[in-house]
Structures are given as structure tokens and as C-alpha cells.
Amino acid sequence: MTPEDASKFIAYILRHAPESIGLRLDAQGWAGIEALVAGAVAAGRDLTTADVLQAVASGAKKRYELSADGLSIRALQGHSTPQVSRSFEAIAPPPLLFHGTATRFLASIRAQGLLPGSRQHVHLSADEATAVLVGQRHGKAHVLRVDAGRMHAAGHVFHRAENGVWLTAAVPPEFLFLPPG
Ligand code: HQG
User: Fold this and answer.
1) Ligand 1 atom nearest to CA at 61
2) Distance 157 CA to ligand 1 centre (A)
3) What is the pTM of this model?
4) 3-state class of 130 per DSSP?
5) Are 114 and 176 in contact (CB under 8 A)?
């Protein structure tokens, strides 16, 4: 597998579908690297331990973490699998956060606010440039500004994953700066 394909495959397994290769994650998202590689190979994928270690070390996005003993790996955020319920500390967000989306989702977001979809949290970023890249994955990017300070004051809980991604359960529309329309 190319490094990019390996990283995407590992993300899919560790966030969304560990059972598809017979892998069991613990509640904090950890899997043994040996079990991950063995499961992938048994499912016909050409994945090696070196590919896994490279996926952890490389990439602008720090998607994964190695355990202290170097034997296990987990995805830091973005899970939809019910096997994982990571406990994140609640912390106060900066006053303004950003969410990158696509213009085609704006009407629905205006009505419902930001919903986590299949993931366990809505993902927000502290900088606008990251939000543009996230939005481009879905189409014509639109960056929404989130009034995180006011949301937090109103009792909404925020977390920050180790890679800097901000997480919250949902963002009601009144905390979004939406374009007129
Ligand atoms: C949109 C990537 C309609 C939401 C990134 C987004 C991120 C709504 C899409 C991480 C909506 C969900 C997560 C509503 C939200 N109506 N659409 N009410 N509320 N949406 O991929 O935030 O490369 O599940 O705007 O960098 O795009 O995987 O979430 O467009 O950190 O490491 O529904 O994934 O990281 O899409 O991305 P996603 P996301 P990785």
C-alpha cells in the first residue's frame, strides 16, 4: 500500500470499522499493532508493521498515537465505532472556532446547526486555514465561524484532542455566524 492508502485504511479501521478485520479496540481506542496487521493481512490487505509506524510518524495531521511501550496504536479522534468512547477532559475553548463545510450543506446547517453525523463529535479547528482544507473534502468549501465563547458560557462542553482538533457534541444554529440567505 502507498503511505497515503495505508493511513486511510488504518483510519477507516481504527475509527469506523475494526470489526471488518476482526479487530477489537478498547474503550479508549487502542489496538495492538500486531493484531491490526494480522487482521489486515487475513482480510487480504497488504499492510506491514512498517506501514503502520510510518502512518503514525508522517502526515500533517497527527491522526494516531502510539502507546508508551510502542505495541499499540489508536486514532486520536473522529470515531464512529461504538467500541470506542474516549473520555476527553472538558476545557474552555478560545472565543472563536472554525468549522469547514461545503456550501451544499449550508441550508441544512442553518436549520439544524452542526450535527456530528456518524461521528461522536462535531469537529472544529482553531485556525481558518485548517477549516478550509476540511471543507474542501466535501465540495466547495465554506468556513463557518462558531461563537465558542458564548456557547461555553451557555454550558456547552468542549474538548481538545491531542492533535489540536476541537470537539463538541453539536453546535445549535444560534452560535453560528451564517451568511445571509
Ligand atoms: C456536515 C478529517 C448537513 C459537516 C477532518 C461536514 C476533520 C451537516 C459533514 C475530521 C450538518 C460531516 C472531521 C447538518 C454538519 N446538515 N450537513 N446539520 N452538520 N454537517 O467528515 O468535520 O482526514 O464526518 O459540515 O480534518 O468534515 O479524517 O466531518 O461537512 O478533522 O483525519 O456534515 O475528519 O480528518 O463530515 O471532518 P465528516 P468533518 P481526517
Assistant:
1) 32
2) 19
3) 0.91
4) helix
5) yes
